[in-house]
């Protein structure tokens, strides 16, 4: 018996050892490898976190925040086709020998509190933040090795603004941190020389653009790389595909980073990650490709303006409408605010952001992690936008975001199909919502009569439609 057990043990051990040797020979799972071609790069899926985020904050901040007129002030002042109102403004407010570089020492950011910013952004309900690391003026908001004496450590604040905000965001919130970066610079001599050579030379790209991008990614690990300033030259000049191949394959954020489509004059709305197509891109219909609407809180400027008036700021009615429209069509909203030269978020911007957070606190279920439904908006009643989401049971719940409370408290919806088990409720309101079917077969919702002090929100209301026939 002992001999039998010993033999059996030897056989068993031999089999286990042989099996382990086979297992060790199996190839380990590998991530997809992306070649430096658009055909390959365009196969990379948009990371899930970005698909579900829906709402982000954009920050245009730089030397242009000092004159507080326009982000393009330098170009509109000294470019080939100057705007006379900008020229006149500079003549009226600065000495005759003033240069754009003279704004550097005045950009002190002395009241910049990144932890306060993080608190505001977290309260807004946003899921990511994108800061301008360098705009077209070329001033770097971090101590770049490739920007001597033209960055926030050498001039002005004497601090690493990118690093300070990244640290605060990651320490105090769960928001993703991203960076905007301009490929070109208005008046950089190397860029102008390449341009004069019809972009057959790449001195600016090799010595400035690409070193900065690699430095930003390796140092700050942004999970959004928002490229801009691409329109004068194609992606071959910018070496964009080589950078993106490294970003997706080997960078420290290769599995989570998301990019946009501004990598050359040939890529906008065609190649890259999510599409921006143009500023304030709100297509109004469901899109096949993920997109982002980068738009402004101040209707007349990306950067902070000293002349801003309360009436220039988007109202909450306008912002909730914009968010509902963009998300219903499959996009994300990237809402821009411009900090002041001192490093403050203006009180009216802070108020709007906190109001957005309050609205999303009630209605976020209809926004976050949703997908477009069979139609973006209703066919009968204007101002009703649809989103959808899989429930825990596997059914599809549909959300109708109603921008305007209907007259007589009666809302007619043309798209939802009524079934025996259909239920209607309102987010933030605990009681069921009744409905009927009219002679045309349309759903007629009896909006509940709610005292103003019990209203779930003040701007737009989300109805949850469960068990629809056409969900």
Automatic annotation (TrEMBL):
Residues 377-466 form the Alpha-L-fucosidase C-terminal domain. Keywords: Glycoprotein, Glycosidase, Hydrolase, Signal. GO terms for biological process: fucose metabolic process; glycoside catabolic process. Its EC number is 3.2.1.51. It holds the Pfam family Fucosidase_C. GO terms for molecular function: alpha-L-fucosidase activity. Residues 1-18 form the signal peptide. GO terms for cellular component: lysosome. Alpha-L-fucosidase is responsible for hydrolyzing the alpha-1,6-linked fucose joined to the reducing-end N-acetylglucosamine of the carbohydrate moieties of glycoproteins. Belongs to the glycosyl hydrolase 29 family. This is alpha-L-fucosidase. The lineage of its organism: Eukaryota, Metazoa, Spiralia, Lophotrochozoa, Mollusca.
């Amino acid at each position: 018996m002992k001999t039998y057990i010993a033999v059996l043990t030897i056989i068993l051990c031999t089999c286990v050892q042989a099996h382990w040797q086979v297992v060790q020979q199996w190839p380990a799972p590998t991530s997809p490898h992306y070649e430096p071609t658009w055909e390959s790069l365009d196969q990379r899926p948009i990371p899930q976190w970005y698909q579900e985020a829906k709402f982000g904050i954009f920050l245009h901040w730089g030397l242009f925040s000092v004159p507080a007129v326009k982000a393009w002030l330098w170009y509109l002042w000294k470019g080939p086709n100057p705007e006379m109102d900008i020229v006149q403004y500079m003549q009226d407010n600065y000495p005759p020998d003033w240069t754009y570089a003279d704004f550097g020492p005045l950009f002190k950011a002395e009241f910049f509190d990144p932890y306060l910013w993080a608190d505001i952004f977290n309260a807004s309900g946003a899921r990511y933040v994108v800061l301008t690391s360098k705009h077209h003026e070329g001033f770097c908001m971090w101590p770049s090795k490739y920007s001597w004496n033209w960055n926030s450590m050498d001039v002005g604040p004497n601090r690493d603004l990118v690093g300070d905000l990244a640290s605060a965001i990651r320490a105090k919130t769960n928001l993703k941190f991203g960076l905007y970066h301009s490929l070109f610079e208005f008046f950089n001599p190397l860029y102008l020389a390449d341009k004069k050579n019809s972009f057959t030379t790449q001195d600016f790209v090799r010595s400035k653009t690409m070193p900065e991008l690699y430095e930003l990614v390796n140092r700050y690990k942004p999970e959004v790389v928002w490229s801009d300033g691409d329109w004068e030259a194609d992606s071959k000049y910018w070496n964009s595909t080589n950078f993106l191949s490294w970003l997706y394959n080997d960078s420290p954020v290769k599995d989570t980073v998301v990019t946009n489509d501004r990598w050359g004059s040939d890529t906008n709305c065609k190649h890259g990650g999510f599409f921006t197509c143009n500023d304030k891109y709100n297509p109004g219909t469901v899109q096949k490709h993920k997109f982002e609407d980068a738009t402004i809180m101040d209707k007349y400027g990306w950067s902070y303006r000293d002349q801003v008036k309360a009436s220039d700021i988007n109202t909450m009615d306008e912002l909730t409408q914009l968010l509902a429209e963009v998300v219903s069509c499959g996009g994300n909203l990237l809402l821009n605010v411009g900090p002041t030269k001192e490093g403050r978020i203006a009180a009216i911007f802070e108020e709007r952001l906190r109001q957005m957070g309050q609205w999303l606190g009630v209605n976020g279920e209809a926004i976050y992690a949703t997908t477009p439904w069979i139609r973006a908006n209703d066919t009968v009643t204007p101002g009703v936008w649809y989103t959808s989401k899989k429930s825990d049971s596997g059914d599809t719940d549909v959300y109708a975001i109603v921008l305007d409370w209907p007259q007589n408290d009666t809302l007619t919806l043309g798209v939802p199909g009524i079934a025996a088990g259909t239920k209607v409720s309102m987010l933030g309101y605990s009681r069921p919502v009744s409905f009927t079917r009219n002679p045309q077969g349309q759903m007629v919702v009896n909006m509940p009569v709610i005292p103003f002090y019990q209203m779930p929100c003040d701007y737009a209301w989300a109805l949850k439609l469960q068990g629809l026939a056409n969900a």
